Amino acid sequence: MPKLLLSNSSSLLKADFIIVGVPDESKSHANRFGVSKGPDVLRLKYNNSQYFERNHKKIPITPMSGSMDSKRIFDFGNVNKNNYYDIIREICKLKKIPISLGGDHSLTTLALKALNNSLGEKISLLYFDAHPDFVTSTQDYYGSVLSDAKDCIDFKKSMLIGMRAAEPEELANILKAQLEWISPLEIVEIGMKSVVDRILNTCTEDANVYISIDLDCIDPGAAPGVSVPTSCGLSPLELVFLVKKVCSNRKILGQDIVELCPDYDLHSNTAEIGARLLMESIASIKK
């Protein structure tokens, strides 16, 4: 397993941000296989794309906004999914911020349950995904995250962003839960500033926010390496912009980046976007 060059802390206890890889796709129903390779490929791409090399030295790229200077980061490595819940709960108890690399999207269910258990309160969820993953007719898979974790989510302070491929039962569940959502069409219509305002008005200042990013929220023309590509998605810059705005204005409990499918990733575009997103997110999170 490659280690992130981003990892600058000698131990979990000395770090603020804990990177956790979950190379598992056991709950995926996708026709494309290979998201279990995602954590290691994203690490490799980060090490190759977020640094310049000169005179045998690695020189990190600086973020577009925010800073990496005071951020203490520890790469915990890859973990067995059976142990993932306990690991996230322990990270939360230590008041660290877990950032998980998937793997299929079902890892978010375990993260939300662990954070809810540690805090004793519901979580404000920002869910960047082409799909709402709110199926109730089938449970315990990557398409039932919101229903499997419903008791842990404060739906009135949560939002789906980039959704454009919902099943009828999912739309019914969204309406029943009074969950807000923003499609790519609406982003074009109202503009990015209005989208940011809506997100921050929903995820209020007192909210404990978890950000979950399925890379298929991005248009597959820019990010083809996902398990379920869906046309008419966000641009990479739109995604990075929205995530950074939330990270810099709200209390972030944790984040994940999931569904990188390297075997379908033309020119490693998706992995590079994921790597940049990882750096830009951490740079904007306030500790």
How is this structure best summarized?
The protein has 287 residues and is of the alpha/beta class. It has helices at residues 38-49, 81-93, 107-119, 145-148, 168-177, 184-190, 192-202, 236-249, 269-284, and strands at residues 17-22, 51-54, 57-60, 73-78, 97-102, 124-128, 159-161, 180-182, 208-214, 251-258. The chain has a single domain, classed as 3-Layer(aba) Sandwich (Arginase, Chain A), CATH 3.40.800.10.
Defining traits:
287 residues; alpha/beta; Arginase, Chain A; 8-stranded parallel β-sheet; two-stranded antiparallel ribbon; 9 helices; 35% helix; globular
What does this structure look like?
This protein is of the alpha/beta class. It has a single domain (17-284), classed as Ureohydrolase domain (Arginase, Chain A, 3-Layer(aba) Sandwich). It is 35% helix and 18% strand. The chain has helices at 38-49, 81-93, 107-119, 145-148, 168-177, 184-190, 192-202, 236-249, 269-284, and strands at residues 17-22, 51-54, 57-60, 73-78, 97-102, 124-128, 159-161, 180-182, 208-214, 251-258. The chain has an eight-stranded parallel β-sheet, with helices on both faces. Strand 6, helix 4 (145-148) and strand 7 (159-161) form a beta-alpha-beta unit. Helix 1 (38-49) crosses helix 9 and helix 8 (236-249) packs parallel to helix 9.
